[in-house]
Amino acid sequence: MSMPSSYDHLDPNDKSKLKYTEQVAQKCRENPFIPIGILTTITTVTIAVLKMKSGNKATANKWFTARVVSQGATLLAVVLGGSYEGRKAYLEGKEETKSIIEIQQEKIQQKAKERQNLWIEELERRDENIKKRKQFAELKKREMEKMKEQSDKLEEELKELEKKTKH
């Protein structure tokens, strides 16, 4: 079961038109406990740091403990909010539940497709390398033929020169 998107109720074309601030505001409206938890965490850390700088270590320690509690509450809000949205999407019929076996089979099929695509890419790379090697070999063969022709011409010229020098 995938996590529901906060854009499920929007047209896909409208998603890209939302500004960042609008997206943040929408998320805050959907689950207001998360921003409250974040602000609480920031406040407790700030107070703890101020108390520590002033030398009141016992109070600072209590505020750091409060920070841990507020972080835990924020995390709990994230988890509960996500499961609530998922449950809501399921009840509205937007999302189907799948068994663990179905999910595992989908993952296996996805991995098999990935392997197949990788193998096809590898075969295409090998084919391209073979083509390049054949082209290179053909080029070298033509160069060798030209060199042989030049060598033959030079041998003929040498024979002619030898004949002229003997006469």
Write down the domain tally: 2
What is the helix tally?
5
Approximate strand percentage: under 5%
What's the N-to-C terminus distance? Answer: 100 Å
**H/E series, N to C?**
HHHHH
Secondary-structure-based class equals mainly alpha
Question: Fraction of residues in helices?
Answer: over 70%
User: What is the alpha-carbon Rg in Å?
Assistant: 37 Å
> What does the average pLDDT come to?
85
Molecular shape:
elongated
Please provide the count of β strands: 0
What kind of sheet is the major sheet? Answer: none
Uncertain runs are 1-7
Question: Would you write up a description of this structure?
Answer:
It contains five helices and no strands. With 167 residues, it is mainly alpha-helical. The radius of gyration is 37 Å and the shape is elongated. Residues 1-7 have low confidence and may be disordered.
Question: Helices, strands, pairings?
Answer:
Layout: H1 12-15, H2 20-30, H3 33-53, H4 57-91, H5 100-166
Helix pairs in contact: 3-4
GO cellular component, one term: respiratory chain complex
Pfam family, one: HIG_1_N
Region (Disordered): 143-167
TL;DR?
The chain is 83% helix and 0% strand. With 167 residues, the protein is an all-alpha fold. The protein folds into 2 domains: 12-97; 99-167.
List keywords for this structure.
167 residues; mainly alpha; 2 domains; 5 helices; 83% helix
